[in-house]
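During the no-cost extension, the postdoctoral fellow (Dr. R.K.) reprocessed legacy sequence entries with the updated structure-token encoder. One reprocessed record is reproduced below for audit purposes.
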Amino acid sequence: MEPSKIKDVGEAIRRVRKSKGLRLEDLADENISPATISNIERGITHVNTSKVYYLVEKLGLSMSEVPGILLDHEKELEDLKFNLSLIEMMIDLEKPKEVLAKMDDIAFDDSHPYASLVQYLRGKAYLRMKNWKRAERYYAAAISISSQNGNKDNIEASSFLDLSMCCYAQNEMEKALEFANSGLDTFNENAGRNYVKYILIRNKAVFLERLGKFVEGLKVLQDVWGDMNQCSDIETTLTFYSTRADLLRKTGMIEEAIQYAKEGLELARINKHYRCLFDMLTILGSLNTSLGQWDKAEICFNTALASQDLVKNDVVLTDTYIWLGILHTQQEKQSEAQDLFLQAITNAEKHDDAPKLTYALRVMGDFLKDSQNSKEAIPYYQRALQLAQKFNYKKAENKLHFRLSQCYKNTDQKEFEKSLLNIYKTQIDLKNGEADIFEEE
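Re-encoded structure tokens follow.
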């Protein structure tokens, strides 16, 4: 019997056995073991053909019935996949609780073609509900089942993608980056859900930016830029633009950053994507602030804030408050600047956004230190330092130790020396064992 024929017959046998409520052990006898029955059902090709015929006969089947059984099976699978796609759509429409209620009656063994998809959808529903731990458990199950049964429909890569988002939401950037890399490693170009690849790349760039690895993040975007036309998700495309513009600013390439920010702004306007439009305006405002073009910067920030009601997610306000505050310090509007820095801190706290909160606290400390209020700056630096140490933001930690050393220099020799030692230690951690001979000038 040909291998493909054994696989078809095995599937038909499995379906008939299940429909009769029989276990493998119920069919086994002195002529055929449960392990052999399992191998036949899974289409293992080295099984003795006589055993296949014996099992068919024992179930009261004839070989002529197999095509019809398989046809019914394909129709059932097609209907099931459609229903599961509607369930996924409901999750995307922010109805995760209703979805979980609908899925209570869905129970497949791990060998079922859609077993990994069901686990993935349960994880996705819990992700929407911000129940990170339960989501993580279901994603882990989806990955395990998918790797055993073949990575169909890129469920493995999709689960790694969502696991990265769970970590991101919990401010675990290093773990988020690891999961994004795992998703890219397991992604199969021919297995469906092609959009997942570009979201993984987008997330990788964002995580690198949050970790202060600007050059690495920029390289990730540069490598994929020529394939942007293959990305079907407009939000992902727009995030590519905003992240590239922000990374270019942070690496000092201001003019090039403005070009990408303007292109992204126009794309967001055309597609009426208000969240990304808000981001682009904030980035353009920050770029113009860096160039000393304060009037342009203020127009960008004020336009962004005027559109905040359309964004429906005020997490994005943190950056705008920070940069508008920085602009006001340049314009010597100190009181307005301080109010905005405090608003940025409050907003980051509200959304438990550790990277942005670390930055907002540091900027507030800088504002006070530069205003000759070093004593008042210290608590902000110390709080930012605690966050940086908790979430392993090594570059931020290094900068904060340096700023604390500036505050202590003329007031507390012991703390000053302690800060200098900490600067040295974090610098060693950042180098991570690199040989100095490779260091560029």
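The mean pLDDT is 88. The radius of gyration is 28 Å. The remaining legacy entries will be reprocessed before the final report is submitted.
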